[in-house]
Write a structure and sequence with these properties.
Chains A, B: InterPro entries: DGOK, DGOK_C, DGOK_N. The structure is a homodimer of 329-residue chains. The first copy, chain A, has 329 residues and is α/β, with parallel strands linked by helices. The first copy, chain A, contains 12 helices and 17 strands.
């Protein structure tokens, strides 16, 4: 099948490369540990140039054969690759942000092979406390394109920095960030709570649910700075075993995130019921969020797949990159 | 002046030793980096015994000359030295906890010199989520002894694990813990927020107050998991400089602690006004809390000094340790 687009999801710690065919089918996918904070650093020859640039080296490692096999193929990338620390900065675009607005704001960097890499800008929200995303905007647009009738819906992207994106009429209109994933890692690796933890072989749903219930309970009113200490005291009193502790803490933090989100949404929406939720991301993490969302009163939760590659495909199409490829093919 | 008591405040990272005279005056004080997690480990001769035990080595380093100069002097210790990882475990006593109850529950360990060290037990609260303290109970008792008419008062002990202790009729009746200090360190040292921070030469009150105000604002409703990200976005948008970030994050977290505490107290106390607050601890940290408490509606805030040594003195007195010393002197 004829390849049409190389689509890169290039974040802080990893680089995912997709080779997409007609209508955006995934022909091939590769995942490399070459995020912008851990780029390769061994210089080598690329297209007859001696090359030491980490972005060039990573790009070549991910795509050299695809580029050779598909001369003139278009390349598009989203994520931290467009940040100030990235390959080429693609300045944030403001909310409300649509497919059209972002597709006309792609920034281009020419690789040492002469291939142009089109970089998707992130999105900024100039609220009292500003908010930013890079990469998630592409995933949200992917969902909006594959579910064109979505409205009054909240798209959740759990992760190191979870995003909750309100969409309306095909636009990202508002979003909130929670540093839940990164704080979970910092708590487990760098506080006293980690000292008594033991990794379980599999997900302990009961321990996780218990953490969520604490966040929902009157004790939860004290907030995560306080309830986290219960992982220690329940352990000291023999009520929480070492292998239960990691999932209990995970449930606590995700529970606090969702309780706060629910409270904010209820206030923001007046009497309206909570919106439908679509989750995008790692399936195990989405499953945790699905459980916790149910406990927190979100009745309608579904999962979206292939959001990134679909978003990159539709952005490339809207930017006219695919037609160009087609002419050369 | 005749020394009456050696009083040890022996925590996780440090050991403070006080030589107390009549009525508990501090004759001498020493601070050693010999907490129970970083004990000395070079064996040496103590009282003709070859000794490799870290607790013995630290105790000798802190007090050998005082013990030699004051034969038969009583020794009392509080803090993590009485934990399961300490020198000798002094099991938790339950709330409500009074001077009388704790003074009859001292545990004794005999050192290689033949000196008995009396260890103060910690306190446990068997609430739905249990709560524990070790060392703070002694400080609270110190304040209660030196301010005998205190009632309906909340004693705050800011630190790695801040404690808020409700006292009534000379007893510790209820307490809450917030891991604010330890989480602040984990956030600054082990998350993306630390990467753009720069240590200021002095406390930036405006940045700190701004963080407190965010916690108090409608944005604060999302909780610290979310508002913390504003340290990054305000930085990205040029609204918060690298040197302002540490104190902004400090204000945010302390603000969230106190907003939650205020909400819980208002609910617990019905229509009654917020209680008077007495702070115990490091003076710079107490000053941060005093500022933030004022902003959060706590109108009556004062500071207590020498709480630990006063608490140890009164516990030793109640346990009859001082009379014993006196007879031998």
């Amino acid at each position: 099948m004829q390849a049409q687009l190389i689509a890169l999801d290039w974040g802080t710690t990893s680089l995912r490369a997709y080779l997409l065919g007609p209508a955006g089918q995934v022909l091939k996918m590769r995942s490399l540990a070459c995020g912008i904070m851990q780029l390769p650093n061994t210089p080598r020859l690329i297209a007859d140039h001696w090359c030491a640039d980490g972005f060039e080296l990573a790009f070549d490692e991910a795509c050299a054969d695809w580029l050779q096999d598909n001369p003139g193929i278009a390349v598009i990338a989203c994520g931290m690759v467009g940040s100030a620390q990235g390959w080429h900065e693609a300045a944030y675009r403001e909310t409300p942000a649509s497919l059209g607005a972002l597709s006309t704001a792609l920034q281009t960097v020419r690789s040492v092979r002469g291939v142009e890499v089109h970089i998707v800008p992130g999105v900024i929200q100039h609220s009292t406390l500003p908010n930013v995303m890079r990469g998630e905007e592409t995933q949200v647009l992917g969902v909006l394109q594959t579910h064109p009738h979505l409205n009054d819906c909240l798209i959740g992207l759990p992760g190191s920095h979870s995003k909750w994106v309100q969409v309306q009429d095909g636009c990202l209109v508002h979003f909130d960030t929670f540093m839940t994933g990164e704080l979970y890692a910092a708590v487990c690796e760098h506080t006293i709570l980690g000292r008594t933890q033991q990794q379980a072989e599999q997900f302990d749903a009961a321990a996780f649910d218990r953490g969520v219930q604490v966040a929902l309970s009157p004790d939860g009113e004290r907030g995560p700075l306080s309830t986290l200490f219960s992982a220690r005291t329940l352990s000291l009193t023999g009520q929480l075993s070492p292998v239960q502790q990691p999932d209990y803490v995970s449930g606590l933090l995700i529970g606090h995130e969702l309780v706060a989100l629910g409270n904010v949404l209820r206030r923001r929406r007046g009497g309206q019921p909570l919106p439908a939720i679509i989750l995008i991301g790692n399936s195990q993490l989405c499953e945790r969020y699905r459980r916790a969302l149910g406990a927190c009163g979100f009745a309608d939760v579904s999962l979206a797949e292939q959001a990134t590659e679909q978003g990159l495909w539709h952005l490339a199409q809207a930017a006219g990159l695919l037609q160009h490829t087609h002419l050369e093919a």
